[in-house]
Structures are given as C-alpha cells and as structure tokens.
Please model this.
Amino acid sequence: MRLVTVAGPPSSGKTSLIVRTLLALRDDGLRVGVVKFDCLSTQDAAVFDRHDIPALVGISSGFCPDHYFISNIEDCAAWGERLGLDLLVTESAGLCNRCAPHIRGFLAVCVLDALSGVNTPRKVGPMLKTADLVVITKGDIVSQAEREVFAFRVRQVNPRARILFVNGITGQGAWEAARIWRSAPEDGVLQGGRLRFSVPTAVCSYCLGETRIGSDHQHGTVRKIPIPS
Amino acid sequence: MSTALSPAPFDAARFADFLRLHHLPACMEANSPDAYWAALTWEQREDTGLDPETLAARYAEFLTLDRQPGAEMALHSLDVLRGRDKSGNPERYDLRFAPGDVVCLVGPTGAGKSRLLADIECLAQRDTPTGRQVLINGEPPGDSERFSGESGLVAQISQNMNFVIDLPVGEFLHMHAESRALTDPAPVVDQVLHAAVAMAGEPFDADTQVTQLSGGQSRALMIADAAFLSPKPVVLIDEIENAGVDRRAALDLFVRKGKIVLLSTHDPLLALSGSRRLVIRHGAVQDVITPGPDEQAMIARLVEIDARLADLRARLRNGERISGFPA
Ligand SMILES: Nc1nc2c(ncn2[C@@H]2O[C@H](COP(=O)(O)OP(=O)(O)O)[C@@H](O)[C@H]2O)c(=O)[nH]1
Ligand SMILES: [Mg+2]
Ligand SMILES: [Zn+2]
Ligand SMILES: [Zn+2]
Model:
C-alpha cells in the first residue's frame, strides 16, 4: 500500500483535490481510501461517502491535530491494509503552523489556495517546506501574474518540490496529481519511522489544565512576547 | 574564470534573505550555516525544528534558485499528434503550432477544448484519456521536463480571473518582474503599462490600485503582462470581452512577442482573425479551417462595425444623446 500525507490550511481545497485525484486513480483500477484528521468536526466524510471512497475520521478535540496524527497513523495504515487498499491518503487540517504530518519515506503533499494571496507561501510553516508536491488550487479565479508569483514564492521556500496547479472543481490538473501519487513510495515502514520535522516538546502549566492567569500560575516552558519599553 | 564546481563565496545578504523566508532568527555575524547554527541558543534551535545538516541542505537548495530564474523556454514548434475522440475513434489531424500563431478553438462547452489544453499543459505522451502526444521542438519531452518543478507551458487568461492583490499597478508589475529575476525590470514594467493603457478604452497609470481597475482595464493589463512578463510560450485566452479592450491590438501584441496563442472564442472578429480555426467536437479536433479570401474580406467589415460600436459606447459614456448610427 502507498501512503500519501496531504496537509494545507482550512478551505484550501484539500478535500476537492483528494476526491478528484482519487477518482482518477480509481478509474485506473486502484483501490483507494482516506483518513480525515480534524480538530472539532468535519463534513468531509460525507463528501468522500458521496463518491464511495472509504473514509475514516479522527477528531483531535483538545489535542494538537498533528500530535494526534502521529499517535494514530500506524493504526490508520493498518486499517487501510485490512481493506486491501492500494493507496491511502491522509487529510489534515493544517491548523498547527509549527507541526507537519509529513513522514520520511512517504509522499508528502501540501495544498495552498492561490486566492489566499501571494504572501501565503511565506506564512505557511513546515507542512509546505517539507512537502514533495505542492498543489495550488483556485488558480481559475486569479490572474496569471499572481499564479506565477505564487509559484515563485513557493519555490523560494521549497525549491525541491514539484509544483502543480489543480482546479479542485473541474479537476483540471488532477490527472497529473494522480500520476505522481501513483508512483509514490510503496510499502514504507511506519514503525520506527521519522517525521520530516520535529514537533515541539514545550509543555507549560496551561497544557496541563491550568486556567488561572498570572505569573504565579505559569510553570514549565514559558515564553514572553518581547515588548519594547 | 570560475568553474561550475567551485563553491560560491558566502553571501551574507542571500543568507539573510534565506533566514527571513524560513522564519529563522536573524544573525548578522555568522559566515556559514554551521556558524549560524552554533550561534543559536538551545531554545532557538528547538524552535526551528531543524538540525544543522537539514539547515545547510536547505540553504544550498535556496541558492540553486538563483541559477534558474523562471527561464523562458525556447520553443520553436509545438506538435499535438492525433489521439481519439470520446468514442475512441481516431482523430483526423496532427497539429503543429509555431511562435506567432493565433489559433482559434470553436465548439460548444464540453466539446473537448479543456481536454486539448490539458494535454498541452501536461505534455501528454499517449498516456492521457485522449491518447494524444505532444512534441516540443519536434521531440517528446523527457520525464524531468514533464514532472519536475513547475513545468507548465501555458499562461491562461479567462473571464473568471481577477486580480486579488491590493497593490498599485506599478508595484504589482515590479513584483512579477522580481519573480523572473530580471536584472533591469523598470523598462519591461514600463512597456507592460504602455501596452495595457493603449489597449484599454479608459486610461490608468502606475499608481492605480489593481483592484480598482475596470473589467476592460484589468483584462488589458493581464494581456500585456502575459505578453511581456510571463515566461510561458503558449497563451490560452478564453474569450476577450468586446467592451473596453482593443482585441485586435491584444492579438497583435502576442504575435509580436512570438507567443503561440490559443483563443477559445465565438466572437466573429476574433474567430476570423486567427490563422487557423480548430473545430472541436466530441472530444477531438473534427476540422481545421484556414480562413479563405471570403472570410478575410469580412474582417475589414467587422473591424469597421466594431469601431462604430466602440464609438457609440464612448458617446454614451460621455452622456450624449444618440440619433442614428455614427457615420
Ligand atoms: N474556484 C475554485 N474553488 C475551489 C477550488 N478548489 C476548491 N474550491 C472550493 O473551495 C472550497 C473549500 O474546498 P475544500 O476542498 O473543502 O477545502 P479543504 O478544507 O482544504 O478540504 C469549496 O467550496 C470548494 O468547492 C478551485 O480550484 N477553484
Ligand atoms: Mg477538507
Ligand atoms: Zn502543533
Ligand atoms: Zn502549554
């Protein structure tokens, strides 16, 4: 089985891209499935369901979604193996800009939305910088010049990645995405594998349930905003 | 003379750019990535999520960008070899496009225009649903050309596209030029601006905000920008509104700049102005029409009608009363 990790800011077009790409792969006879990670709730399962794509949903609630991802990915992969999938995709909300769900040895995809503006590639963290494939959506509604500047700025922070424009609505470009996903590394080993980017170890008293404000209640790793005097 | 293998001397300004883009703490003293790492505190290192090897590798990659500044591809010919239609019947035409060609695509929505474009965009090698093959300068592109970096050949302009950035036109064009790593962007920016203003019905200048441009003005700016500043050798245009843009001037500009223009249009003036017209139906090119003397003779007449309509529009804008057709 191949495992592909897809991450990107909320509403960047991840679900649309995944559906379009998986449909293309399924046309070629591959068995495909999705694990959707989110923080609070998700409507995505209904979308996958509508296209008869098996989907598992994980809600992280009060947990950093990427920490949650890492602690669950092995079990999710085992689920995919049990279903006899050829390719399993994980979709993460990309809500933590310090972490990234990308794993060494597995195809890592970051989805960005051209409509969000040309400064976006400079604001997104490791989920962009450590990706192998950067998919830019919504190019159908911004100017060619902005698409070119956007792609250039992606290259500036991640010169290795393949950059692809995909229209999440019409599916234009999804054929190429499918072709790249299909040649993703196969049967990688998760057990003992490594993330591409370390997740922070910082733990403060608030992580442990403290609700009171004030320096008396702050222990562990505490960081202060530098405020000019 | 320096050889390609000798390591470039450490460039403090480039390193500072790299740190800024990767949200890493600035450090004025460090004269190598290793020295930089050594100078970071434990907490700062933890924050970066990196290790010294990854940091050095990222910086080396960042420097390679300087050597590939959105280079324009030298395209002498583009072939699209016949595939099959939606029912699997063989297509009848091989197509060859050369710089300066204006080729019109006609046919109803869903006939296969986007499929043809997609084949060109991904440099199809008989591996897409249409079975077409694309040749670049007479040869199939290598896998690295197809599947590395941002390889697309095609710039697109359609009626749904808007500028979303909030910048004055001049700054916006400079930003685009910067992404091309042009050594002297100012003259090109001027050319784009002049060409755009000449094409647009209503004047604007470098200080106008791009988001404030009228429909015709922004279309004119997109066209001029694609002609002068886009590195893509093929331009696909999905209909040019007949209000507010000199459409013939737009086509002339692309021809002068040696672009291959694919124009999806049912506007009579534009559709007849092309050097060829591809009739697309049922997923394939069903006919290739070269305008004969009859059609060419019509162009002059259409230009005249177009000018009259433009004149009427201008007079309405001026608040005039209209009585009969202008002479
Ligand atoms: N115009 C346009 N809209 C898109 C495109 N891709 C996605 N969308 C829309 O953007 C919205 C968010 O997409 P979705 O796939 O749910 O994003 P996610 O939150 O990242 O999974 C939906 O309304 C999509 O229809 C695109 O390429 N063009
Ligand atoms: Mg989603
Ligand atoms: Zn996190
Ligand atoms: Zn905490």
Observations:
- The radius of gyration of chain A is 19 Å.
